Amino acid sequence: MTRTTRSFWLTFMVAAMLISGLALWQWRNEPIPMPPAAPFAPVRPAVVSPNPNGGINEAIPPTAPEAVPPPTTEIPTPPPPPVQILPMNAQRLERVEFNPFIGDIFRVVYDRSSENLFMTVVESDGMRGVWKLSKDLQIERVLKGNNKAGEVFLGQTTTGVLIAQFDNPGSIYRSVDLGRTWQKVSGDIDGAFWQIADDGKGTVWGALHAYNKAILYRSTDDGLTWEPWRDFQKLYPEYATTYAAGDNRLKLRHLHSVAYLNGRLFVGTGDMARFTFMSSDNGETWKKIWDEGFTASVPLEDRSGLILGPDRLQARGLAVYKLSDGSATEVWQPRQYGYAGYTYSMTDVGGSYFAAFHNETNETSTFTGRSGIIVSPDGYRWYPFLEFEKLNNWARTDIFMTPLNQWQGYVTLNGGLYRFEAPIGRWYEMHKAFGDK
């Protein structure tokens, strides 16, 4: 190769190297396209919680959504429970407090199968109805009556049928499903029942407490239909006379109560002609067994007799009627112990018998008798149990009872509802009976 040829190739190689280096330099300095940057998200701290098997659990919570500003209105505070049982007071009574106040409570029936308490209530605006207090202390009205004046009644047959009645106009309602539904079965009875009784086979009797009407009603289909069955003014016309000249009240002007025990039917009459009659032939004939018209009763535990409660100011006392010989023996006298003697309610709780006495100072302007509940282990020996304050005004202490279980019962007093405990253990040994020194 000539000298000229070698120079040419050397020059060519140097030029090629310069051109390649320049191209590489330009390529490396061109901007490289980048994907759009992701929005900035702050790092969220881990959530740490203890592990029951030891150590800790750590979890990164998901990204929270955009925060929602808190509401500007204040969240309301939940209302307090509708029913509250207050602590027992010195009288050993636990008051059942309703919030809000539902009204004055009178008749009460406790159904053990459902553990519900049914109550007749006269509400604040005068509306009369039936309310239910459930075992979990929830309250609701189950029957709305009317806001007229008059007596209210509530009872339950041994088959579980509830019977409610509102005087004026004397409408009768019946429920066979423990107050869930009611059927109006009568609307033309003048007055209201004071008590009902039944034979457990569908026959029910209702003692009418009305002005100058002494009628015993009867139902043969478990309270579905009713008929005026026996009129005691017609059975005993000698007592269907007026009090005195110018006074149109009849001496036998209403019925006090009715009871049924071992095939025998008992009826108490009033007002001046106060007797207890008994029929052992389904009401065909009647026999006077006591010179007082009972207003309340409770059978002895062995069903060998009936404890009868009076309704007269310091006259007759409690009596035990024995089925074996047909005798009625008075076992407790209110006059000896300063009680008025009006018995509104009797019941049996855990084998102890309770008699509730109320006070009516409209009988006289000078007498203010004791009122409350007395108790007995056998129906013959009676003990002071709960005594209420004496009345010194023209008032009445309405008092009704119903058993709750083997240890407790409910009692209403002047519109209030209370729970009380029955004697247990050696209670009777630790207390003195009436007449003991």
Secondary-structure topology with pairs:
Layout: H1 3-29, E1 47-50, E2 56-59, E3 83-85, E4 93-98, E5 104-111, E6 116-122, E7 128-133, E8 139-144, E9 152-156, E10 162-166, E11 171-175, E12 183-186, E13 192-198, E14 204-209, E15 215-219, E16 227-231, H2 232-235, E17 242-244, E18 247-250, E19 254-261, E20 264-270, E21 276-279, E22 287-290, E23 296-299, E24 305-309, E25 318-322, E26 327-332, E27 342-349, E28 352-358, E29 371-376, E30 383-388, E31 399-403, E32 408-413, E33 416-421, H3 427-430
Strand content: 35-45%
State the distance separating the first and last CA atoms.
158 Å
- The number of strands is 33
Structural class: mainly beta
Give the neighbour order of strands across the main sheet: 3-4-33-32-31
Q: What does the oligomeric state look like here?
A: single chain
Architecture overview:
The protein is mainly beta. Helices cover 8% and strands 41% of the residues. The protein is built from three helices and 33 strands. The chain has helices at residues 3-29, 232-235, 427-430; strands at residues 47-50, 56-59, 83-85, 93-98, 104-111, 116-122, 128-133, 139-144, 152-156, 162-166, 171-175, 183-186, 192-198, 204-209, 215-219, 227-231, 242-244, 247-250, 254-261, 264-270, 276-279, 287-290, 296-299, 305-309, 318-322, 327-332, 342-349, 352-358, 371-376, 383-388, 399-403, 408-413, 416-421. The strands form nine sheets. A five-stranded antiparallel β-sheet has the order 3-4-33-32-31, with no helix packed on it. The protein has a four-stranded antiparallel β-sheet with strand order 5-6-7-8, with no helix packed on it. A hairpin with a 5-residue loop joins β9 (152-156) and β10.
